[in-house]
Amino acid sequence: MKLQKNDDLAKRPPNSTARTVPMSIERVLAMNPPAPVVYIVDDDNGMRTSLAWLLESVGVKSEGFASAAEFLRAFDVNKPACLVLDVRMPEVSGFEVQSELNRRGATLPIIFVSGHGDIPMSVRALQHGAIDFVEKPYNSQQMLERVQRAIKLATQRHAKDQRKRELRERVESLTAREKEVLRGVIEGKGSKRIAADLSISVKTVDVHRASIKEKLGAASIAALVRDVLEVWSPPGDERA
User: pLDDT > 70: what percent of the chain?
Assistant: First the structure.
């Protein structure tokens, strides 16, 4: 198999091929993440107001919505948040809201509340990703503890989501050739095999590998493969 003779890339030091990836707004925000907001979705104005006051008393920010439709219009999937959601509401139920959020890929923790809850209802909520199910009327202190747990979880999930978004952005910054080399790395191929597949020199492959590691901020090839598989599948790959 004939290799490219004018392979200037192979003569360059690894760092010369790596471009600095501009710091994204997501990365800036990740360094100073905003405090999670607690969404309160309940058609009972009294319940919304009392919970908002309770949260405000301990310095927790909340936003109230009288209907599911109103909440879904305002909801920002990129904003750290948790949700206190009434099960029974006119037009759109709490379970339907949960399904829509799952469809959107939202990871915010959900605490369901209901004045008519039962075991099958709570099981359904938890099976679809809710973290808690509370019956009305609830104990204020217990509700605060549950919301604080949800806020902590929301912060963790948001940080993970931000990391994935940044990594996806970095992968997209790779050149077409670097993505070809990355595909070979993911498939477990060594530099010689990748070089043969792409008709380039082994040294060029190694330069690309070093560039990919630097651009993606990977400590090792094993870490690179693990992280990349969370956010990217090569074109034509069954995982795509």
Answer: 84
User: Per the domain annotation, does 41 fall within a domain?
Assistant: yes
157's torsion region: left (phi>0), alpha (psi -120 to 50) or beta?
alpha
Beta-carbon neighbour count of residue 192 at 10 Å? Answer: 10
| pLDDT greater at residue 238 or residue 193 | 193
Q: How far apart are alpha carbons 178 and 21 in whole angstroms? A: 14
User: pTM value?
Assistant: 0.71
Chain length of the chain: 240
* CATH number of the domain bearing residue 63: 3.40.50.2300
Alpha-carbon distance values, 72 to 4, 43, 82, 182 (Å) = 55, 14, 14, 38
Domain termination residue (choose one: 109, 144, 163): 163
Domain that holds residue 117: 35-163
pLDDT in tens, 67-77: 999 999 999 88
pLDDT exceeds cutoff 70 at 2: no
Total of domains in the chain = 2
d(CA 212, CA 144): 46
Same domain, 78 and 195: no
